[in-house]
Amino acid sequence: MDLYEHQARELFAEHGIVVPRAEVTDSPKEAREIARRLGGRVVVKAQVKTGGRGKAGGVKPAADPPAAELTARQILGMDIKGHRVGKVMLAEPVDVEKEWYVSYVLDRAAGRFLAIASAEGGTEIEEVAARHPEAVARVHIDPAQGVTSAKAAEIATAAGLPPDTVDVLVRLWDVLVREDALLVEVNPLVRTAQGGVVALDGKVTLDDNARFRQNRWGEEGTGHDDPLEAAAAARHLNYVRLDGEVGVIGNGAGLVMSTLDVVASCGARPANFLDIGGGASARIMADGLSVILSDPAVKSVFVNVFGGITACDAVADGIVQALDAIQPTKPLVVRLDGNNAARGRAILREHAHPLVQQATTMDGAARRAAELATAD
Ligand code: GDP
Ligand code: MN
Q1: Most informative mutation of 4, 19, 99, 200 for ligand 1 (most atoms within 8 A of CB)
Q2: 130 contacts: CB under 8 Å, gap ≥ 6
Q3: What are the structural domains, with CATH classification, of the chain?
Q4: Where does the pLDDT of residue 156 fall: very low under 50, low under 70, confident under 90, or very high at 90 and above?
Q5: Given the residues 4, 101, 104, 239, the one annotated as active site
Q6: Is 104 one of the annotated active-site residues of the chain?
């Protein structure tokens, strides 16, 4: 589970990492009051669970309380990479002298946490790593040792960070351990004009397996600011939005993952991951299709089902129900195989919807869906 910036900031503060004073609101009027409390000048920041808010216009300075109200009004409701802004954080502005990047992330392949740090912070770390790989230090953490002062000094030296960031690196590790996080990231960690070290932005991903002892964020923490993710979660669908154009629905996580690969190998990009599960009913198929078809980024949909517990005729019934209910405007390519495939295919043939095509192989279906998605 990802936390919002304001939640990450709260955790940092509790562990002794310096953060700017800030408050959160969903109301422009209250934003004006908050700005007054914070001394007038503020930075208004969209609270969405995605990075690159600054570039998308979701982080803006405001010179006084009326400007803060106006800016909050602009940012609230904004769409940032498919995330609707429901709240803004107003933060005391910081005079930035230097920006650094620091994070701890689980390196599953190594079976260890990895410290990533760079003296070139501020922009996305992927960009820095692509342009100047030598500017990004990577240091594995021994799980039995954790990040001691000595280890933190090693990380800071490797990245070219000054000695007074060592304390922050140790405290950030405490956040990770105490809060059961899989990722903690500060980008940027800054040197202020006054000489201090301040965490200006934060990202924390908690380990869902530790939910039972980390339930302080309650409903807000589990909230979805992507309306499609919220709709999918309400229908108990396993849905993840990606940034391509081919909608993907399959039954079973393994099949869906290989479907994503096949779509990618055909030169298109999947728009999402939607697993309707092993025992999917007609109803679930209909729910899944309605979520995918309401995503404006989707240009074509690939339904890839291998009938097992759920027979293909039930899936075909679900598709027909969904088509009747939704009136889609985008083409669907359906590949049914496995249990009762012949009956399922016959149902779709008889229904003869002009936007639905069938394919017998996964590769053939993926090619067709990719062609349809990239047609114009
Ligand atoms: P992100 O774009 O989602 O990573 O959002 P950030 O919170 O990192 O803000 C984007 C950028 O805005 C930061 O990297 C800073 O360069 C800048 N920024 C944010 N807050 C302040 C501030 O208080 N003072 C200054 N000078 N820059 C800020
Ligand atoms: Mn940032």
Answers
A1: 200
A2: none
A3: 21-91 (3.30.1490.20), 96-213 (3.30.470.20), 227-374 (3.40.50.261)
A4: very high
A5: 101
A6: no
